[in-house]
Amino acid sequence: MEITYTYTRKRSEFGRHCNFTDWPARVTVDIPPDPSMADNFVPQDPVDVAIQHSYDMSEHEVNTARLQAESRGVNHTEGGWPRDINPQEQEQTARFRKKLEKEENYINTIMHLGTLMEHCVRQNNTINIYEEYFGEEEMAEVEYEPPSAKIINVIRDPNIPKRTTTRISWQPGTSEKLAVAYCSLEFQSNVEDMSFDSYIWDLVKPNKPELALKPSSPLVSLEYNPKDSYVLLGGCYNGQMAYWDTRKGELPVEVSTVEASHRDPVYGAIWLQSKTGTDCFSASTDGQVLWWDIRKLSEPTETLVLDITRKGLLENALGAVTLEFEPTLPTKFMVGTEQGIIIAGNRKAKSPLEKIAGTYSGHLGPIYALTRNPLYPKIFLTVGDWTARIWSEEAKESSIMWTKYHLSYLTDGCWSTVRPAVFFTTRSDGTLDVWDFLFKQNDPSLSLKVCNEPLSSLRLQDTGRVVACGSKVGTVTLLEISSGLCTLQRNEKNMVNAMFERETKREKILEARHREMRLKERDKPEGQEAVPEKTAMENPQEVLERVRKEFFEEIEAEMRRKTRAETQ
Amino acid sequence: AEVEETLKRIQSHKGVIATMVINAEGIPVRTTLDNSTTVQYAGLLHQLTTKARSAVRDLDPQNDLTFLRIRSKKHEIMVAPDKEYLLIVVQNPCE
């Protein structure tokens, strides 16, 4: 059934003026309240309503696209000459000039400009507006400004499969170039198109590497020769050593033979000081330290197996992760191992067994960095596991100072080249810490989050002002640290010296006490031989049995106690 | 003649290294430096003056550029612009 409504109107009445009338108010519907319906609802008392009268705001982030800047030059040539005059012809140009000079406009303009110019020239000659007025009141008292660091440049790895920056080396001398070694350190992660190149970057052009070094296998360590800024030494992932001359090109000048090289990635490769400037040595996790002469890389000149039991067995050898050499102490070198032990070696020892002069243990994991303090060579810094430790050569038992245990691994560290109490460490959460041990030992003086990926390497420029840190994805960030952290304070050397000596003395005293205690203990059992013997006789099996029995007895005692408590 | 005198006088002031007159098309009319350097100065300073003038006029259309001084570590370049010509003086201020 269709519901229709018809509305009829006479055609003559269309468009008529509306006739409105007034009605008094009329109640159309009146619905009285029904209390029974209230039972459907539950009264809520009290009621919490949050009301806010404030602006509605929204957050929006915008980041501009990265700008690629390139340096270009402009070629200036002469132009503007009218068409009929050849600029090369002296006569024509001279004639043109003479004609121009005769014009009235020219004369007037020059007179006017001349007076103007003379006024300024004279002004310059009388007063030097940039004169140093308050020269004597030099800022001798530099106000203490909080340490800060500023990122001045970021250099990214141009290849797509990202590799870790394993080593950074500044060019000696001018420090304008940076050699960075890239290698993927993940175990067995060789992607097909991962490039093997390592690059030398010029700081003026951060977008394109200056030179690409093409080894046969990715480089794990890379060092400039401190005497010759064109020669670089590289240690490869497959254990070979190679050296480059940047004047000769991208391929290595010579590569060591595979048989004579290391069997594991070469984690440490350092130039030695010698008359020829061609000696170097390398260390790797296969437990060997090899000395080479780069003119003849077919076989090493010397080898040393890092076996601290001094038997020279490769099976007992500890894998080396860092290598250290200080040109001021040319006969000594140090190796940091995967097991957390630092081995101090003596180059001049006759037999390889005596090469290992001493060991220092104290780290719980591999030692990722090992450097001597440039001003106090007896003090060295090691970075590994979750702490950084400062050691003195004289205190063999433990480090003299150490930082607190961090929440993330410490991956690299180095001393400041200018201030003996300042050192830098990088962490695997992407933070760079600057420690000033003279000022505060609990926390770093400055902690900067450089990037979100773990930082893998760190190197300070020789001036001490700029530090380069490399991350796991191949980005090298250059930071400039505030002047407070890279200028030597007055008295600093004395204070630092006093601090190190004090700590060393403390360690020595502790060492002496330990030794005394150990001697006492050794003397005691000599009088009571029976008791220690019996306990020594218990072999592991018996110990296990005894422990098991004790354990079950304890459990039964507990159960008995419980049942007693329940029944009561 | 007077022009010569004026330019000579300016050149003889203490510390003045070079004087140049460039026309609106960039042609060096009068110069005390060698040609290639003059051409370089002409090209660069002409553009800079135009830019400076447009900046001044943008900020206040009634205003106009009367003089431009560029002080660098080594010396000071002074440019007196005009509609048709540019007078450039390079001076080493007294220190």
TrEMBL record, chain A:
Q: Which UniProt keywords apply?
A: Cell projection, Cilium, Cytoplasm, Cytoskeleton, Dynein, Microtubule, Motor protein, Repeat, WD repeat
- InterPro entries with a match to the protein in the record: Dynein_IC (IPR050687), WD40/YVTN_repeat-like_dom_sf (IPR015943), WD40_repeat_dom_sf (IPR036322), WD40_rpt (IPR001680)
Q: Name one GO cellular component term.
A: microtubule
Q: Where is this region: Disordered?
A: 519-542
State the Gene Ontology terms under molecular function.
Answer: dynein heavy chain binding; dynein light chain binding
Biased-composition ranges for Basic and acidic residues? 519-536
Gene3D superfamilies for the chain = YVTN repeat-like/Quinoprotein amine dehydrogenase
Where found?
A: Cytoplasm, Cytoskeleton, Cilium axoneme
Key word Transmembrane present: no
Q: Which SUPFAM superfamilies match?
A: WD40 repeat-like
GO biological processes? cilium movement; outer dynein arm assembly
Q: What PANTHER family does this protein's entry cite?
A: DYNEIN AXONEMAL INTERMEDIATE CHAIN 2, DYNEIN INTERMEDIATE CHAIN
* Family affiliation: Belongs to the dynein intermediate chain family.
Protein name from the UniProt record: DNAI2 protein
- Origin organism of this chain? Caloenas nicobarica
UniProtKB/TrEMBL annotation, chain B:
Gene3D superfamilies for this protein: Dynein light chain 2a, cytoplasmic
Which Gene Ontology cellular component terms are annotated?
A: cytoplasmic dynein complex; microtubule
Assigned keywords, A-Z = Cytoplasm, Cytoskeleton, Dynein, Microtubule, Motor protein, Transport
Localization, per the record, is: Cytoplasm, Cytoskeleton
Would you kindly state one Gene Ontology biological process term found in this protein's UniProt entry?
Answer: microtubule-based movement
Member of which family? Belongs to the GAMAD family.
Instruction: Show where the Roadblock/LAMTOR2 domain sits.
Output: 3-91
User: Is the Cell division keyword given for this protein?
Assistant: no
Q: Does the keyword Lipid metabolism apply?
A: no
Q: What does this protein do?
A: Acts as one of several non-catalytic accessory components of the cytoplasmic dynein 1 complex that are thought to be involved in linking dynein to cargos and to adapter proteins that regulate dynein function. Cytoplasmic dynein 1 acts as a motor for the intracellular retrograde motility of vesicles and organelles along microtubules.
Highest taxon of source: Eukaryota
Name listed for the protein in its UniProt record: DLRB2 protein
